[in-house]
Design brief:
CATH class: Alpha Beta
Number of domains: 1
Shape: globular
CATH superfamily: Class I glutamine amidotransferase (GATase) domain
Radius of gyration: 17 Å
Largest sheet: 9 strands, mixed
Strand order of the largest sheet: 4-1-5-6-13-12-11-8-9
Structural class: alpha/beta
CATH topology: Rossmann fold
Order of helices and strands: EEEHEHEHEHEHEHEEEEEH
CATH architecture: 3-Layer(aba) Sandwich
Distance between the termini: 14 Å
Number of strands: 13
Length: 261
């Protein structure tokens, strides 16, 4: 049986003087193995004249006709504040206007088309903005008790180690996936996060300071879930992470059966 096709939204970033379209390998591996799916990159196009987003070249219908799922990975870049009602000077660098131009419209189109989606870190923030929510540009400056940021001085294995619990929503999907557990230990590598949750979203997990760390769209035809922490990191060693990628893969297989008749 052929595997479902998962398209990855790419970072659009300069590398050695050229514009590159990048996805970190850990996300690709988690989808290929954890979801048993075929990862394919989806570049956010820019003009070859001045590097500005070429949003007129995006045809969401064409993209979605060829896929069984959309993955929105984490990134060093941050969503542009004007997209969620804040002034441009609130931008925390680096920015990625080409990714912004692709991802927000793609999220809305994928929801309408019944295409499964999983967003992680920046992808979680993009999904909240696309569905009508807002973000804290700097969580550590709004009186939060927990510093959610990535300590870049640590080796990767330590930086991605679990550092705080999240409260799983009683009766929620995440809690059911792990036998009714009420808490789970997760990593934390983000500066921004959900401020106002988009209307109609169902919370799946909250940090000890109340920040929403996972939510889903209960009105979606298929799996549409956003996670602020990084379940892709060594996903096979964590029961909740394993369940997340398995469920995403099953939703993609359902979409594949529908798409291919």
């Amino acid at each position: 049986m052929r595997r479902p096709v998962i398209r990855f939204v790419c970072d659009v970033t300069p590398v050695a003087g050229h514009i590159a379209h990048l996805v970190v390998e850990k996300y690709l591996y988690a989808v290929a193995v954890g979801a048993n799916a075929l990862p394919i990159l989806l570049p956010g196009l820019v003009s070859d004249v001045d590097g500005t987003p070429a949003s007129e070249a995006i045809d969401y219908g064409e993209i979605l006709a060829l896929v069984d799922g959309i993955f929105l990975p984490g990134s060093p870049s941050n969503v542009a504040p004007p997209l969620y009602g804040r002034p441009p000077e609130d931008q925390v660098l680096p920015a990625d206007p080409a990714r912004d131009a692709l991802s927000l419209g793609l999220i809305r189109a994928a929801l309408d088309a019944g295409v499964p989606m999983l967003g992680v870190c920046r992808g979680c923030q993009e999904m909240n903005v696309a569905f009508g929510g807002t973000l804290h540009p700097k969580l550590h400056e709004v009186g939060q008790d927990l510093d959610h940021r990535y300590d870049k001085t640590l080796p990767l294995a330590e930086a991605y180690a679990p550092v705080h619990d999240v409260a799983l929503e009683p009766g929620g999907v995440f809690s059911r996936w792990v036998g009714g557990a009420g808490r789970w230990h997760v990593n934390s590598l983000h500066e921004q996060g959900v401020d106002r949750l988009a209307p109609g979203m169902a919370v799946e997990a909250r940090a000890p300071d109340g920040v929403v760390e996972a939510f889903r769209h209960p009105g979606a035809q298929r799996f549409t879930t956003a996670i602020q922490w990084h379940p892709e990191w060594r996903f096979g060693a964590d029961a909740l992470s394993t369940a997340i990628f398995h469920a995403f893969g099953e939703a993609a297989r359902d979409r594949m059966a529908f798409r291919r008749g």
